[in-house]
Write a structure and sequence with these properties.
Number of domains of chain A: 3
Radius of gyration of chain A: 27 Å
CATH architecture of the largest domain in chain A: Alpha-Beta Barrel
Oligomer: homodimer
Strand content of chain A: 5-15%
Helix content of chain A: 40-55%
Shape of chain A: globular
Distance between the termini of chain A: 41 Å
Structural class of chain A: alpha/beta
Largest sheet of chain A: 8 strands, parallel
CATH topology of the largest domain in chain A: TIM Barrel
CATH class of the largest domain in chain A: Alpha Beta
Chain lengths: ~725, ~725
């Protein structure tokens, strides 16, 4: 999921940015926006006599969800709402908030999640076909709580709501950096808050196999560094998710991304190999399977598999010509299909470059014999074997783009990460598909970029039937560069805009209104337990050693981390557990507030030449200029901040240039213009890096802070405007 | 542990505050301070070539502890230290940091935790008898990391260190408010950071039985609201603690504090009872055990046991005359003694007022028959039965003060919560004792109060042999008024000063230096994962709805929550799960920084009449006065803050009075003095409340914000000084 993404992702974004329809501003501060809202007159006043009652038939998850709703309402309003645990006693008696449910919901793809919410002056009603719909309605209701000088209230309205797509997910990579279950839990709460319904759990990769197997204990014993989910914990997570109406789809990535698989099962690797040392402590050199000598090569040191510590695409690949591979994966998948109740099982299948296959004469011989013309067909052969295991288990197989080759049964589901093209053609061919291209939240693009990616843009021309094959989408959170401390901040609040894209009607796409509502949902997400806001204060205190965090905050609010995977150029600067994740780039979010605001000011100024706007820009620029000395002073006592020295100096420099541009009468001299433009562009520091680095120190020297100055976009625009290069 | 504590705790603190010895200021910013520090010349510079190596014989916990040490060092310094997981490859090769250990440590009472740490210009050495000593040494070393303009370094020095007491604990109440295991884990990390070595886990109380029993599943099924620790989780916590050199001592509180026991086992209650309804859903009225009619009373509605939702001391008590009680507790304790490996088992035994015993003719008859003169002797009879079970399990029984009555075997350990008197006399009688009186961190006293409580003050006159009976002490965190979000802030950083009291020599007791170092360790505690700092930003954002938190912060930094249990007067205002814990009182810490600073300014001013100090006080008072309007404005849009309206108005009012006092020439008129003194005292709002409340709203009206203005202490002093009531 690493190297090759850049080109295609950009392609897709460019295509989608042309969607520029504007919908009228909504009257409610909800995210995702409902399918239909009718405002009414009046308010339901929230008092300490507030109670809720349940009616009809529903799963007991509604007890818990109702109790959590009350708890959040108490925390948000400070009101003593004495009804604590909603239970059997709360069924059937009419009160302030009545929830009517027709039947028990099932946490499966396509379950009815619709609901109607009606707030009137003297009562609130939620009606839903299933308890899952009621859960979604309660999430809407809590977001509706507003305040005026008299206290808290819900505005009178009627909402009729249902999701646009049935699959609205986030993939969390628990392999590259292990994420303990409390991280998973709080993210499930975040997902529930924005009505997402699938957690795709990436459980194996080069960096570790993270799920306990009782059939093959070497999985966790050899290939997890001791960091794995026990089966008890997996069950706990599945229950926790189901209580929130969220499915858990496990992914076991094969045959590539398999370094850790080869650590656990070296005998299944596609490359000649040999045990150097029995990992369980024995001293003898064992030789299992074929010896490298049997290949007729001169004797050489065989590769030894070690859990991977760097990002990138690695060679280790399972051997699809070895029957033992199918025996092990078959038994393992059977065990996992019992553990995970969901109908879907994800087998990964991405980014297998087949280098080990090309180099292995035995594999080449097999391909010839079976008339498999290339590695794609060999991988398809492998997939078909797994498909049978999965079908025998009564489940459906899914995988990334690459599994789709000629002859793949229509039963398989394709998750598209490479682009719309593959998604569209698969949907036309009758495969069920999911979009992830454009939803790579780990790439640290601003929220707007993700927001405007539509799984079924009008212009792709799918028929209604074909469009139904597009199940929805998934944000993907690959964890090369995140820890349990920082991961929330890379996922939230931006995932909320993907949630809206997948829930709300296609026509909901006003970017300004999205950003406005995003600030509100961000607080709501903090309330449910996410740490995307607090972690920043924590890391800033760490950096300043308890001193004033102000100057760091100024810098952070003007900067964004390098996008794509450029922060970790070549994948070699950072290692999983040998690098610090407490630097400026970890602190910066994808939407640097002050920079975004400055860029907006530039737009306004270019359009209006307003003096007030000019004054505000000047004030901001002066703050940025003055901040550099403060950062320099801090670095003397907090050397960890040295990492940000260049970024701070650049910010001061481009701010000075821009001040000069602003105060200029007339257009600048052409030579001056060219040189300043160059300086601005140089300070931007975004885009791919192509240098080769010899060591981490070398990278540090060359790359500096691994952050970009987002406001340079506005600054360049302003310079061009002054130089008459663009129209006002 | 509730009502009666106030008197005795005050007594003890008063006694201890007389200890006022001053030790010379230390040159290292450590907490706890080591037994012996010798500073040397030079610095060990931290570079990316930094590695550690292990030598000798040790438990594998040292691998994990060393890896965590490196990880914290990376996070703190931002350095890429590539040695990630310390393991077998890191044994025996000399490098920058060498750790020499003689033997495997055991996580048992009295294990050797001593270590010697030597930092020289070109290398660091830790020597310890056991790996536990090495763990303590690594915690010291990470705290020693300092910075100058050249980078990070450790100062050259030699530390020879060992603990004063072998039992340095914190009791965490997981019953009143359930604390999920991630809360327990991060608190274990906090404990390890300050070298504490016992987590006393209060697992049962009126509010819930929180541990899974496989022998009696009704324990978790009926009496936990679904919130309990599974046996897997208990094992996980015990392992997690042992990896940090921390013992886990479980407490099962009997025969009082037993409401939840009576929910799970109504047939064991001391009061006539009857099932109103089978908790598992049956409709029939079952009668188990003796019918109330058998007592000869007229028919009446029997009490039904429900899990308690309020704080307080409740009547439900197990029946010590019922053989079934011993059968159930015996089997349960046997199960738990297998689950918990520690030698000590805590049976609680506190605050049994015996009301149900007095009222039960069958129990009265039993007492007469067995010549048990009072309820104490009846409880002793009960304890002796449990003691036998515990001894048969090869373990030692411990309990709160109340278990100590004539005839208690010397084998039992007494935990003293009622005062030094009981501790001293028990130690003299040859019992092993632990001090908790004076360490009730939930009472929200300032750090200094706890710091000066010595388990063996010089003046109590214990012989050296008797003093050895004092094993140490435990901070106690009762959880009536805390949630998983707020609990860290009620425990930390203050518990660090108790850790120092129990680790460092008696002579270490300079309060000013303690407060200085407390600010430093507080950041270190945040680094290990505690949330005592970030939770505040989170709750302030919740209160302001994302608006500027400044005005709330001003108020918070001037206020402290009501001490003792006065915030929750009568124990009736708050319920466990029906009340908000997001109010001003939840935000305020025990040591309000601005108020403490103001009070210090008053002291300086009274001593020096310094004009600069006067100016600084005036500035602060003006900030407090101006803040009230900002709070008033915020309340209009954030009604949750209405709770703080009175506190804010009081702060402005007393600040105005104090400004007037400050600007006064000469002494005030006596009548004016008296009236202002009254106003100041009235605004203080601390101390016990004795009013009766009819409802939560009534409490709110009467109590206001449930916070006190700590600076009023200084303000009153200033007024008295101006009025010539105290000497300068």
């Amino acid at each position: 999921m690493y190297k090759k993404i850049i080109g295609v992702v950009v392609f897709c974004w460019m295509a989608c940015l042309t969607v520029k329809a504007q919908t009228p501003k909504q009257e409610v501060d909800l995210m995702p926006l409902p399918a239909n809202v009718q405002m009414a007159e009046g308010k339901f006043r929230l008092q300490t006599d507030f109670r809720l009652a349940l009616h009809g038939t529903f799963d007991k998850r509604l007890f818990g969800a109702s109790s959590r709703f009350l708890s959040r309402l108490r925390d948000k309003t400070g009101l003593f709402l004495p009804q604590d645990f909603v239970g059997l006693d709360d069924i059937g008696k009419e009160t302030n908030l009545n929830i009517y449910v027709k039947r028990e919901g099932k946490v499966v793809l396509g379950e009815d999640e619709s609901y109607t919410l009606k707030v009137e002056k003297d009562g609130i009603t939620i009606e839903a076909a299933t308890d899952l719909g009621a859960l979604r309605g309660l999430q809407t209701l809590i977001q509706l709580a507003e305040a005026d000088s008299e206290g808290y209230y819900f505005p009178a309205l009627t909402i009729k709501d249902k999701p646009r797509f049935p699959w609205r997910g986030i993939m969390i990579d628990g392999s590259r950096h292990f994420m303990p279950i409390e991280v998973i839990k709080r993210n499930l709460d975040g997902m529930a808050a924005v009505k997402m319904n699938v957690m795709h759990w990436h459980l194996t990769d080069d960096h570790g196999l993270r799920v306990e197997s009782k059939v093959y204990p070497q999985i966790q014993e050899r290939a997890s560094d001791g960091m794995y989910y026990t089966q008890e914990q997996v069950k706990e997570i599945i229950t926790y998710a189901a209580e929130r109406g969220i499915r858990v789809v496990p992914e076991f990535d094969v045959p590539g991304h398999a370094t850790a698989w080869c650590v656990a099962f070296p005998e299944l690797a596609s490359s000649p190999w040999q045990y150097m040392k029995d990992q369980e402590g024995g001293k003898s050199e064992k030789k299992l399977g074929e010896s490298p000598l049997a290949l007729g090569d001169a004797p050489r040191l065989p590769p030894m598999y070690k859990i991977e510590r760097h990002a990138g695409i690695w060679d280790a690949t399972l051997d699809p010509t070895n029957e033992k591979t199918y025996e092990v994966l078959g038994n393992f998948l059977k065990e996992m299909m019992t553990l995970f109740p969901d109908e879907y099982v994800h087998i990964g299948g991405d980014e297998n470059e087949g280098k080990q296959w090309d180099a292995n004469p035995k594999i080449q011989k097999f391909m010839k014999k079976h008339k498999l013309k290339d590695n794609h067909m060999l991988q398809n052969h492998f997939n078909e074997r797994l498909l049978k295991v999965i079908q025998d288990g009564g489940k459906r197989m899914m995988g990334w783009d690459e599994i789709l080759v000629e002859g793949l049964p229509k039963d398989a589901v394709i998750q598209s990460w490479r682009g719309h093209e593959s998604l569209v053609s698969a949907a036309k061919d009758g495969y069920q598909v999911l979009l992830s291209n454009g939803y790579y939240i780990d790439l640290m693009h601003p929220a707007a970029d993700y927001y405007l990616v539509d799984p079924v843009p009008a212009e792709v021309g799918l028929s209604e039937e074909e469009a139904k094959n597009v199940l929805g989408g998934e944000a993907t959170m690959w964890s090369e560069l995140v820890t349990p401390v920082t991961i929330d901040s890379r996922m939230w609040p931006r995932s909320a805009v993907i949630a809206e894209r997948l829930w709300s009607p296609r026509e909901v796409n006003d970017v300004d209104d999205m950003y406005r509502r995003l600030d509100i949902i961000s607080l709501e997400l903090e309330r449910v337990g996410l740490t995307h806001l607090t972690y920043r204060e924590k890391l800033m205190r760490n950096i300043t050693g308890g001193r004033d965090i102000g100057p760091v905050e100024v810098l952070v609010n003007a900067s964004v981390p390098f996008r794509f995977y450029n922060r970790n150029s070549q994948g070699m600067m950072y290692t999983t557990y040998g690098s610090p994740y407490t630097l400026l780039a970890d602190l910066c979010g994808a939407d640097a507030v002050d920079a975004l605001h400055f860029n907006n000011l530039v737009d306004t100024y270019v359009a209006t030449n307003d003096r007030e706007v000019k004054k505000e820009m000047q004030d901001q620029l002066n703050v940025w200029i003055a901040n550099d000395q403060k950062i320099k002073n801090l670095i003397k006592v907090s050397p960890i901040l040295k990492d940000a020295e260049q970024a701070s100096a650049n910010l001061a420099k481009v701010s000075s240039i821009t001040l000069e541009v602003l105060s200029m009468e007339g257009t600048p001299d052409h030579k001056w213009y060219e040189s300043k433009l160059k300086e601005l562009e140089a300070a931007h520091h975004d885009g791919p890096f192509t240098e080769k680095f010899s060591s981490p120190e070398d990278v540090e020297t060359k790359v500096g802070s691994r952050t970009s100055l987002l406001a340079v976009e506005g600054m360049i625009k302003l310079l061009k405007y002054k130089a008459d290069k663009i129209d006002g």
